[in-house]
Design goal:
Oligomer: single chain
Strand content: 5-15%
Distance between the termini: 89 Å
Helix content: 40-55%
Number of strands: 7
Radius of gyration: 25 Å
Strand order of the largest sheet: 3-1-4-6-7
Order of helices and strands: HHEHEHEHEHHHHHEHHEHEH
Shape: globular
Largest sheet: 5 strands, parallel
Length: about 400
């Protein structure tokens, strides 16, 4: 009996040793593969909207004059709005600009400008801050226009600040520093972060788990699924097709997603008031003020880079305010104005229920194509001279700096 137990323990120890040895060998191979310079860490990320937009910005030969950044509220302006303004189908994956805004500024001031637009669904102030920090240091525009709304600061659908796709992406291609530390709002998150940091230090498989998972999924989808489809019988009852505006890809967008001009056939009005009520209530002060730290950081960073920043409060349908706790919207605007004043930042309030009626919205927050055209015209009327002046000054200062360097 004793011999049997000893043999069993010996076998367990042998298997444990072999397993540990295999793990260490694999870990060493992963470490070598990831650090020898041949592995593209940026490419090893989900090729969804944030990746495509970051890729486009990284590939710019020089900084644009104006960068616009914001959530899906801006995304609709530079997708449906642009398609309607240009009266043509556009590719929303690669149409990263506002031709309408460029034309409007030139028409009013005679100053030609070029723009780049980051419009990403669910973009919070924290996401905008890490993207600005990681991308605009080397290619700083003359003007940064940040379009904001209450959900950017108060969103109960947000799990942890650092878990979003833009935050994850920028964590892998830039140095976050204090931005990472401020994403940890409680002791549980801080403990989890410390444990993760320890595991990442000890194990390459832990440190590069996201990249390994992405490569494995991409290989499976590219090679295994076509092979399996030859032998797996297709279901007799076809799956119902989703409406064209609902994108369910959990991995890798295609590089072409068509958006069409507004007309009576493709404008789909929906009611998302219950969704926004969930986002706004209950109000969580810690999460709310954490997002204001990121707004503060962004304005501080922009000032250091000599960027002119304009904060634009986006239009909402009036009934969206009913989803908020009493007086929240007033508090939100006052907090934004306070932080804007701290950095001498222009604040443009586009919440105007007289100008933007219910007919201009697809739901309680997103403008239709025609509503977006109206928005850009009104925005240009408010800021075109300031934008043009900053572009001219930026160009003049840049030439002086280049001349001084050459001298």
């Amino acid at each position: 009996m004793l011999n049997t137990a000893m043999n069993a323990m010996s076998a367990i120890r042998s298997k444990a040793f072999v397993s540990l040895l295999v793990f260490l060998c694999v870990d060493l191979l992963v470490r070598v593969a990831m650090t020898n310079g041949s592995f593209d860490k940026f490419d090893a990320f989900n090729h969804r909207k944030p990746w495509w937009q970051v890729k486009a910005y990284k590939e710019l030969a020089s900084a644009p004059d104006v960068v616009l950044i914001g959530s899906s509220l801006l995304e609709h302006v530079v997708n449906e709005g642009e398609a309607t303004y240009l009266n043509t189908e556009i590719n929303s994956v690669k149409h990263n600009k506002s031709k309408h805004f460029e034309d409007a500024v030139f028409k009013q001031t005679g100053t030609p400008i070029n723009t780049f637009a980051f419009g990403l669904s669910g973009l919070h102030a924290s996401d905008a801050a890490v993207m600005v920090n990681g991308l605009l240091k080397e290619k700083a525009p003359a003007t940064l226009i940040y379009t904001i709304a209450p959900r950017d600061f108060c969103d109960n659908m947000l799990g942890t600040i650092g878990s979003t796709e833009p935050f994850e992406l920028m964590r892998r291609i830039s140095v976050l520093g204090e931005l990472e530390l401020h994403s940890l709002l409680n002791s549980d998150e801080r403990f989890e972060h410390r444990c993760s940091s320890v595991f990442d230090t000890l194990s390459a498989q832990s440190k590069y788990r996201h990249e390994l998972n992405t490569v494995a999924q991409r290989t499976y989808r590219t090679n295994a699924i076509p092979l399996l489809s030859r032998y797996v019988e297709k279901p007799k009852t076809p799956m119902p097709q989703l409406p064209p505006d609902i994108r369910q890809e959990e991995f890798d967008f295609a590089d072409y997603v068509a958006v069409f001009p507004d007309n009576e056939h493709n404008v789909r009005v929906t009611n998302n008031l219950a969704c926004y009520q969930f986002c706004y209530q209950p109000f969580k002060p810690n999460a709310y003020y954490a997002q204001f730290y990121y707004l503060d950081y962004m304005l501080r960073f922009a000032k250091q880079q000599n960027m002119n920043v304009i904060l634009v409060n986006m239009p909402l349908r009036k009934d969206n305010l009913n989803a908020m706790i009493p007086n929240f919207y007033t508090m939100y605007k006052n907090d934004v104005k306070k932080i804007a004043a701290k950095y001498d930042t222009q604040f443009v309030d586009m919440f105007d229920t007289d100008t933007f009626t219910d007919a201009d919205f697809l739901d309680t927050v997103h403008l239709s194509g025609k509503g977006s055209v109206k928005f850009v015209d009104k925005l240009a009327n408010a800021i075109a001279p300031d934008v043009a002046a900053s572009v001219v000054k930026h160009g003049r200062d840049g030439k002086v700096a280049v001349a001084a360097e050459e001298e």
